[in-house]
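Explain my protein.
***
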Amino acid sequence: MNSRKAEWLMASVALAWGSSYLLMKLGLDGIGPYNLIALRFGIAFFVMSVLFFPRYRLLTVSTLAKGIVMGIILFLIFYGMVNGVNHTTASTAGFLTSTTVVMVPVLECLLKRTLPSKTIVIGTLLAVAGLFLLTAKDGISLDLGAIYCLIGALFYAIYIIVIDKVAKGPDAFLISIIQLGIASLLGALFMCLLETPSLPQTPLQWGAILGLGLICSAYGFVVQPIAQRYTSPEKIGLIFSLEPVFSALLSYIFLHEILGIQGYIGAALIFSAVIFTELSKRPPVSSSQK
């Protein structure tokens, strides 16, 4: 696979994940958040395990451990995202999740114990201003859905950093499948403890759950670690910034969600922070290269 194909694959993943907020909104009409997580990742794990069962011959204790770690983080991402979508609009959730691209370099600075660059500071300030305009309701308070979405975005930033360390070898594909099963098990556990287990009641709800399981989870979370090996982090981050755009577009078309003037200004600031942070990482072009 060359870098161009990998980037097109990541663009398709961004589209799939952009649609996930719409599908989660539809799926949550009939079942609880943890029930949705259990079904979504359970379907993805089952399908991928059946299709690629021979891969399990390569299973080692190390691969299983990595899959468990990634699965726990994956569950925590969707603990925030699903609860966030349940308390806010799908388009708002999509834009809030895009702040992951700003959080990643901030976390890297903390891990390396270095001061953040001017780029990170400016990008963070733009994102914070955008978050305020997009999610503030009365005064400086944020709604519950926004807080959940930010928790999901934080754990997704952690996910990106960890997956860069543990999923670079030949076992990356198997790790990606195992993480789906772990996320489903944790969702089922919380479902049994906090909710009444149930199944979707309408064809629309079943369609949303199947879309989440097959397209957004089985495809998205298995393709990501593979495609990341063939292109640069800067390009991946820039491609991921398309996700909230797809989310807002699909939410407008299918759910008729409108953010309002303040919301669109906030969304534009967040999008600007994402683009600015990624484009500023590119090395300047020397005169000999022009």
